[in-house]
Amino acid sequence: MVEFEALLRPQLESAYRLAYRLTGSAADAEDLVQEASLSAWRGFGSFEPGTNFPAWFYRILTNAFVSRYRKSRRQGQTMALDEVPELYLWSQSAEAGREDVLADPAETLVARMDAERINAAITALPDEYRVVAALYFVEDLSYQEIAGMASIPIGTVRSRLFRARRRLQAALWEAALELGLVAEPEGLQ
Amino acid sequence: MSDELTCRQAFDRLEEFLDRELSAEEAARVHAHLQICAQCTREFRFERLVLEALRDKVNRIRVPDGLEDRIFAALESAK
């Protein structure tokens, strides 16, 4: 137990943030981390000492999310992914006359949105895209590592990530418009 | 075939370039294109800044007080 605790403890904050991106709620995120922790404890005998504990634990957490939460969640999706307009909208906006956006996008757009709104955009993605996007924002994971954690081929990670990014960027663009951070460029609506 | 990338070809590699998922050879081709194309350099910089800002933001979700204690208490009671 001491060894397990020592390995698990440094992962809990990052695991909670991953769980929050997956579930979209603080209560569900904590439940998910707790469930994954219990599963990991029960299955700790199968963990090979010296291998990547975070990867092992995130895989358990991701599997727990897929099996427990995805069936109970609504599949609400108002726009098919293929209908998302060709991006890159933000830079198109800059070319449409908002040079300030291009000058410092982090300051003018993303930094002015709260973290909850950005996480909400991730949570609103369809399940299979959300899992890949949520893992993508864990620091320093390669596509190969994401593939292992989500139990899908690396080619599927690439295609899902590509489409998740398009959908996410469109959602954040809509949020930026709503917040008045950017103006509607002509010819994009 | 020329080894030089067009803007479109560089653009198609943008995301994997930013994610450091291209092979060394492919990354070098993108670098070479960026050396000679100010517009793509601007676009790549823009996307990199947005990605960094997004990554920073999503990892600022506050972790609830007492999370560790509750998790380890649950583990204790499950023993």
Short summary of the structure?
The complex is a heterodimer of chains A (189) and B (79). Chain A is built from 11 helices and no strands. Chain A is mainly α and 189 residues long.
Termini Cα gap of chain A: 57 Å
Would you tell me the overall average pLDDT of chain B?
89
Counting helices, strands and paired strands, the structural category of chain B is mainly alpha
Number of strands of chain A: 0
Question: What fraction strand of chain A?
Answer: under 5%
Radius of gyration of chain B: 21 Å
**CATH architecture identity of the largest domain in chain A:** Orthogonal Bundle
The helicity of chain B comes to over 70%
Categorize the overall geometry of chain B. Answer: elongated
Amino-to-carboxy terminus distance of chain B: 65 Å
Order of helices and strands of chain A: HHHHHHHHHHH
Largest sheet of chain A: none
Low-confidence stretches of chain A: 74-90, 97-102
| Total beta-strand segments of chain B | 0
The tally of structural domains of chain B comes to: 1
Determine the CATH topology of the largest domain in chain A: Arc Repressor Mutant, subunit A
The overall average pLDDT of chain A, rounded, is 79
Approximate shape of chain A: elongated
The helix tally of chain B amounts to 5
Q: Over all CA atoms, what is the radius of gyration of chain A?
A: 18 Å
Characterization of this structure:
The complex is a heterodimer of chains A (189) and B (79). Chain A is mainly alpha-helical and 189 residues long. Chain A has 2 domains: 2-68, RNA polymerase sigma factor, region 2, helix turn helix motif (Rna Polymerase Sigma Factor, Chain: A); 82-178, Winged helix-like DNA-binding domain superfamily/Winged helix DNA-binding domain (Arc Repressor Mutant, subunit A). Chain A contains 11 helices and no strands. Chain B has one domain (7-78). Chain B contains 5 helices and no strands. The chains are: A mainly alpha (189), B mainly alpha (79). At the A-B interface, helix 2, helix 3, helix 5, helix 8 and helix 11 of A face helix 4 and helix 5 of B.
